[in-house]
Design goal:
alpha+beta, Aminoglycoside 3'-phosphotransferase, Chain: A, domain 2, about 20% strand, Phosphorylase Kinase, domain 1, single chain, 2 domains, two-stranded antiparallel sheet, 11 strands
């Protein structure tokens, strides 16, 4: 049984109102975490749980959600607090009742707005995870070097460590990464980082929401390439995004590279 008393005290402290769980309901939390909704007589929160060693993962997720919210673009669940209760790490989030129908076009426009939040280098202020896989966010001024070393190269290293045979084709692709960017120099945009179809939804009121981020600053095309995996997003999403911020020539080629570099190993 999770240590709800410790989590209750933390929620009470950060909200300034006493919170005592009256109802804890297990809900789908993906393949990595267990998740619950906690409710008292008037409020509900969404809580993720994992082993205590995963607290850093939750801290990074909370920081990423805050960055998305501070971009004043697409909505994300606001993080309230995180910590360790007994032998479990926890992350408490704003509860958003999902399952409504909304505008894919609005999601596309709001994502383009989020991507206009930019930085002076690629990477992020800390490493985080994509799924359960570590994601290296060491700052780089050059996007091709960042992708070559910290995305594709790192994924190939993990694959080799797990027993996969990379072979000469993988090695040659890694060497030739700079060729994909000989006439294309993206700006470091705020990215969700793991934007597949399972990481967005609409609230019951129809508001687009993105969650479970792997935030960093990079080429906005990587987010769009990720949306094309695992079934893709609705056509209205892509049309609205491109209307808000047209894509640069060569995306059709670069997106293949990005899809390879985002595989979960």
């Amino acid at each position: 049984m999770p240590d709800w008393a410790t989590i209750n005290r933390h929620i009470s402290k950060v909200t300034g109102q006493i919170f005592t769980t009256h109802d804890a309901q297990a809900v789908g939390g993906g393949c990595i975490n267990s998740a619950y909704t906690l409710s008292d007589a008037s409020r509900t929160f969404f809580v993720k749980l994992n082993h205590a060693s995963r607290l850093d993962m939750f801290e990074a997720e909370a920081a990423g959600l805050n960055d998305i919210l501070h971009s004043h673009s697409v909505h994300a669940p606001a993080p309230l607090c995180q910590g360790i209760a007994a032998d479990e790490a926890y992350l408490v989030l704003e509860y958003l009742p999902l399952g409504g129908r909304g505008s894919a076009g609005q999601l596309g426009r709001e994502l383009a707005q989020m991507h206009r939040s930019q930085h002076d280098h690629f990477g992020w202020r800390r490493d985080n995870t994509i799924g359960a896989t570590p994601q290296i966010n060491t700052a780089e001024d050059d996007w091709a070097r960042f992708w070559q070393q910290h995305r594709l190269g790192y994924q190939l290293q993990l694959a080799a460590h797990n027993g996969a045979r990379i072979g000469p084709q993988g090695e040659q692709l890694l060497i030739r990464v700079p060729e994909f960017f000989s006439d294309y120099q993206p700006h470091p945009s705020l990215l969700h980082g793991d934007l597949w179809s399972g990481n967005y939804a609409f609230t019951e009121a129809g508001q687009p929401v993105i969650f479970d981020p792997a935030v960093y600053y990079g080429d906005r095309e990587t987010d769009l390439a990720m949306t094309e995996l695992f079934g893709g997003f609705p056509p209205a999403f892509y049309a609205a995004y491109k209307e808000a911020w047209p894509l640069d020539p060569g995306y059709a080629t670069r997106k293949t590279l990005y899809k390879i570099g985002r595989a979960h190993v």
